[in-house]
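Appendix C reproduces, verbatim, an entry submitted by the partner laboratory led by Prof. M.T., so that reviewers can inspect both the input and the predicted structure.
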Amino acid sequence: MNPKPVWKILTYTLLVLWALFTVLPLYWLLSATFKLPGEAIGYPPTLIPRHPTLGNFGELLFRSKFGFTSYLNSIIIAVGATLISTGSAMLAGFGFSRFRFPLRNQILVLILLIQMIPLLAVIIPLYRLYSLYGLYDTRIGLMIVYAVRTVSMNTWLLKGYFDTIPVEIEEAALIDGCSRLQAFFRVSFPIAAPGVAAASIFAFFRSWNEFMIAMTLTSTVRPYTVELYRFIGEHGEVDWSLLGTASFIAIVPVLVLFSFFQKYFVIGLAGGALKE
């Protein structure tokens, strides 16, 4: 008997089981979005709502304490952190790719090691630092710390992408009268656009979904990830219908964004993995 079909069946079976294990909890949570509160906490749970309703959206956004503010905070903080992280990593990646200077490789390794520092090891000193300099409970404070958490990875990604761009193209622009900065923005940046898009998506998703830092460094200016705690009561009871609705509203924009930019994200990651 040929063992190949057996291994193929086993492989696909494991993949299907893993997909079900991953998707079913998300589906159950999202199905609670369209359930009445009584059905959302009922046992046995129902996968398909018996009486679908859109009333949870109005309850969440207009009559609960959750509201629009937390989503607005998340959007502002995530976009700001993305701009800071991508802009810094783009210039740093270009510098590491094009210039040779002392300790260049050691600094690159140090940047990578900084990315590996556990969050819990720095959260208390970070809280103290933010309290001293007035950055606690501010949007700009979260933007900065989120950007720092993603700029290391983005620097390596964009450095690898700039390595794939021939230096001769920039030299031709310099001969034509462009400055180094003009050659970067007119020649290198358009070619590296897929890599920049991949870095932006990575920074945005990390900032959008972060919880621990926002929980520690804010008290009123809180993103949606922290505000989800409002659905956990004093004795541990959870309003699953409103929690599912809040999660649904948070997930859908990210899925739509990723569906539009998925091609650039994949191309950027693939391009950044290549070396000369």
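The chain has two domains: 3-53, 64-272. Additional entries are available on request from the coordinating office.
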